[in-house]
Amino acid sequence: MSVTRSRDGLTGYVTLDNPPVNAIGRAMRAGLMEAVAWAEAEKLDRVIVTGAGKVFAAGADAREFDGAPLEPYLPDVLDAIERSFVPWIAAINGVALGGGAEIALACRMRIAGPRAQIGLPEVTLGVIPGAGGTQRAMRLCGLETALEMIAFGKPLSARAARDAKLVYALEDDPVEAAFMVNTEELLCVVPTWELPPPEMDAAAFAAAFAAVRAKLAKRSAGQVAPMRAVDVVEAGLSMEFAEAMALERSTFLELKGGEQSRALRHMFFSERAAKAPAGLPAAPELTQIAVVGGGTMGAGITYACLSLGLSVVLLETDSDGVDRARHNIDALIAQGVKRGRLDDSGAEALRARLVVSDDYDAAAGAELAIEAAFESMAVKKQIFAKLDAAMSPDAILATNTSYLDVDEIAAGIKHPSRVLGLHFFAPAHIMRLLEIVNGAQTSERALATGFALAKLLKKVPVLAGVCDGFIGNRIYTRYKEEADILLIDGSTPWDIDEAMEGFGYAMGPYEVQDLSGLDIGFANRRRQDASRDPNRRYIPIADRMVNEGRLGRKASVGWYRYPGGGGKVLDPLIEDLITEEARFAKVKRREIGADEIRERLVLAMVNEAADILGEGIAQSTRDIDLVTVFGYGFPRWRGGLMHYADTVGVAQIVEKIRALEVVDPVIWKLSPVLADCAETGVALADWSKPG
Ligand code: T1G
């Protein structure tokens, strides 16, 4: 199918029809090329092109990107549409993205419906617009709007597109409106390619390009496609259209085959493949959720559920707790109103669905409870006992614990099969990752409930097995441990942070700890004291920080000093403290460069992640990639931790870890999964547990 066509008198109708999002594959390109010939053979006076369903077209079919381009190429199809003597009108019924937008830009006229959006998000897939977007957009909407669309990939709403002159009109029924356009008026519209490129004085041009490049350097550091897109737009200003189109095409093809596009496509499809495992039973319908604990996490979870239209019973220990919880929810609601996500009536409706109480009986009717209380096993066990007594025996009980043993929590109640972990990430109403922890006794119905909630909340769900820290925090703990070793061996928090920001993290490990609070790591290390290998090198610097009250932002001092006003400043006292600890430990500090920092930290994470895969705590490398990108800031344009490891090559990774094993055989134990992949030549992504 892909393209259907019909006619009514001298009006031709062409419908892009490739469910679910009308992605433009070879069949659609061929169908469009045939439609041009058909319209000319029938001597129609116009063709109206629109999308089947709610989408106009989601762009080129990204699944085709791995293979060689297949004719007819989209730029050629759009040239045929644009130069045909039968003018085409794009009746934009929904999102028109990438190649979808480019089809519309090549049409003689564009009429947008209320749900229309026009965007050129190609850079989010590591490429640039490859079918005229870099040259046609600016001819219609001017340089600055085109640069913003292309460099940052954000779509324009129908209204914004109309105001930017990308569309001729906004109409409730764009197809009908296109039919009504006066033929003479339509024939007077100049084809886009014949419009002159934007004219601005040299200074204005220079300022526009400098501004977008400066913004990209901050927001898209390390990413190639956005900068190259700006270069192609700039080059096009002083080239013939055909020449500029050739440059665009060659740049697009080059980037399509590059590492960053492969990584970003991997993330795009991995995110969409993150769904409930096949075969789970239907989940109970969720109407009321109980949340235990109204602190940061509990309030965030509550707000997220209220925003879905669910009712929530937020439980606290006493009236003071109830007041604090209510205050936290009010703050989130006020933030939602301030950001325009909620109007006053919406805020009232949220409040109407919320009960805050210290009486667990208030939660008797909830289908699901999520415990988000203090990270203490004793506290959690008490709470689960109270939930067990107050709620229906088939209610699902979830813990939001970040590290603790879900099986131990489940053991304390009747019907432990209804217990699972739902590990949200702060802020819970914003961060998309949700680790769904599958306990030894967790039933399929409980898992199905977790995945159902994830889908409602539009989270990225990842199934995790039970171990200390599950997938993400276990990798993060190893990352911090290796960072502290580099610290005492010769580095500083800011050198390490800078090195990892240079790798693509928005924040390095020390700034992150200051944000979340050093006391969290301290509590986890105390919990692990009894089980830690006495021969394992232990770096006491972070403990000393906590003992000296340097807890991070909340104490105005941590690894950095926060004198007020939001910024962080380096604190020379930290270097003295580190040097002193190195002396106590008889460590001879040495210069450690950024490359070594990045390599050691990434290798530490890859090795730990490989063990997590080998132990079945994670189901796939794709899941580990989702956790590291959506939960811990691993650069998306590197494809996540394990995709990146495969890009580097397992053989090289194994060689480097073997060398580190010589230095410290206790901390560096090569994962059997990595050894197996190196031996068999199988990529991590293709590794499967033997037997
Ligand atoms: N190619 C292939 N499959 C796609 C796709 C695409 N462009 N877009 C979506 N899908 C699949 C997706 O994997 C999922 O599959 C299903 O459609 C529903 O998607 C030449 C080169 C349009 C806003 O970057 O932003 O054009 O999981 O879950 O939430 O210059 O999809 O069902 O098997 O996201 O309603 C540029 C990407 C391409 C837009 C709809 N276009 N897509 O969101 O559904 S490059 C994009 C989206 C290009 C040209 C260049 C969203 C959406 P499955 P979904 P949704």
Could you characterize what this model shows?
This protein is α/β, with parallel strands linked by helices and 691 residues long. The protein contains 29 helices and 17 strands. 49% of the residues lie in helices and 11% in strands. The strands form three sheets. Strands 12-11-10-13-14-15-16-17 form an eight-stranded mixed β-sheet, with helices on both faces. Strands 1-2-3-4-6-9 form a six-stranded mixed β-sheet, sandwiched between helices. Helix 3 crosses helix 4, helix 5 runs parallel beside helix 9 and helix 10 runs antiparallel to helix 11. The model has no long low-confidence stretch (mean pLDDT 96). Bound molecules: (2S,3S)-3-hydroxy-2-methylbutanoyl-COA (T1G). The site of (2S,3S)-3-hydroxy-2-methylbutanoyl-COA has 27 residues, from strand 5, helix 3 and helix 12.
